[in-house]
Design goal:
The protein has one domain (about 15-85). The protein is built from four helices and no strands. The chain has helices spanning about 15-30, 35-40, 45-60, 60-85. Helix 1 packs antiparallel against helix 2 and helix 2 (about 35-40) crosses helix 3. The longest helix is centred in the last third of the chain and has 23 residues, at about 60-85. It starts with 14 loop residues before the first helix and ends in a 10-residue tail after the last helix. Pfam families: UPF0175. This is UPF0175 family protein. It comes from Mucilaginibacter ginkgonis.
Length: about 90
């Protein structure tokens, strides 16, 4: 199948970037299997997997990282408080 897309003037994106974005979008919406998405993006299965892992890693902003870290610390602090208050039954006693 061939599809033509008219992009706005001055919009700079490569064909490869379009294929990757389309493949990721269709995979996330369950329209394609992972293997089909990799094929659409013109990647091997492993290279497509690596591409997604690298993109995910670099898209994590400092704010998201701090929020995630603070949420984890808050959860850990709450768990420790529950243990110290005696509100948690040790696993071996269950």
């Amino acid at each position: 199948m061939t599809i033509s897309i008219n992009l706005p003037e001055g919009f700079e994106i490569s064909e490869n970037e379009i294929l990757i974005a389309l493949a990721i979008g269709l995979y996330r919406s369950s329209k394609l299997t992972f293997e089909q998405a990799a094929q659409l993006a013109r990647y091997s299965y492993q290279d497509f997997y690596n591409k997604l892992e690298i993109d995910k890693m670099f898209k994590l902003t400092e704010t998201e990282h701090l929020l995630s870290t603070n949420a984890n610390k808050k959860h850990l602090d709450q768990s420790i408080a529950q243990v110290n208050a005696g509100n948690v039954i040790p696993f071996k006693e269950l």
